[in-house]
Write a structure and sequence with these properties.
Keywords: Cytoplasm, Repressor, Transcription. It holds the Pfam family ACT_6. This protein is an alpha+beta fold. It folds into two domains: 77 residues, ACT domain (Alpha-Beta Plaits, 2-Layer Sandwich); 84 residues, Alpha-Beta Plaits (2-Layer Sandwich), CATH 3.30.70.260. 27% of the residues lie in helices and 44% in strands. It is built from four helices and eight strands. The protein is flat, with a radius of gyration of 20 Å.
Length: 172
């Protein structure tokens, strides 16, 4: 019998980290499935899903914890049940002057309208002409039977006006 696990990690950014992790998964009869990996600041972080024999989960967890001696901090957890299918998705893009609270306001609007974030990437960039910091976000959001698109559009319009942001919703 096999199981799916999630492995999260972070460490100093250096060559060979993914090779170490994939070798351990392979040594325990596992298969690397999905992953999201990124350098943030001077650190490298990621989360991945792997499938492996159930009787290897504890041994893999022990092996991952020994990577701390190499500066790789890992956590292993059961992947849980597959999520229920959403009715549809929308792509949300946001761009505007960087300031504290943008992510908090955005996620509050999504929650209040009954939406779930499937994925989100954010960055702060330098504006080409002014050199001012610009906040950029891209998210894939899930619409469910109880989601209220009109409520979300109203919330996002109010947020865009008050924070001088450009926010677009595009059906996937």
């Amino acid at each position: 019998m096999t199981t799916r696990v999630l492995i999260s990690f972070f460490c100093d950014d250096r060559p060979g980290v993914i090779e170490q992790l994939s070798a351990l998964i392979n040594q325990h009869g596992g298969n690397w499935l999905d992953s999201q990996l990124s350098r943030l600041g001077g650190r490298f972080a990621g989360v991945l899903q792997a499938q492996l024999p159930e009787d290897q989960q504890e041994a893999l967890g022990d092996a991952l914890s020994r990577l701390e001696a190499d500066g790789i901090i890992c956590s292993l957890t059961d992947a849980g049940a597959a999520p229920q299918e959403s009715l549809a998705t929308q792509r949300l893009t946001l761009l505007g002057p960087d300031r504290p609270g943008i992510v908090r306001e955005l996620t509050r609007a999504l929650r209040m309208a009954g939406f779930n974030i499937r994925s989100m990437e954010t960055s702060v960039e330098t504006a080409p002409m002014s050199g001012e910091p610009l906040f950029r976000a891209e998210a894939c959001i899930e619409l469910h039977s109880d989601s209220r698109l009109d409520e979300l559009e109203w919330q996002l319009d109010a947020m865009a006006d008050s924070m001088t942001l450009e926010i677009d919703l595009i059906p996937d």
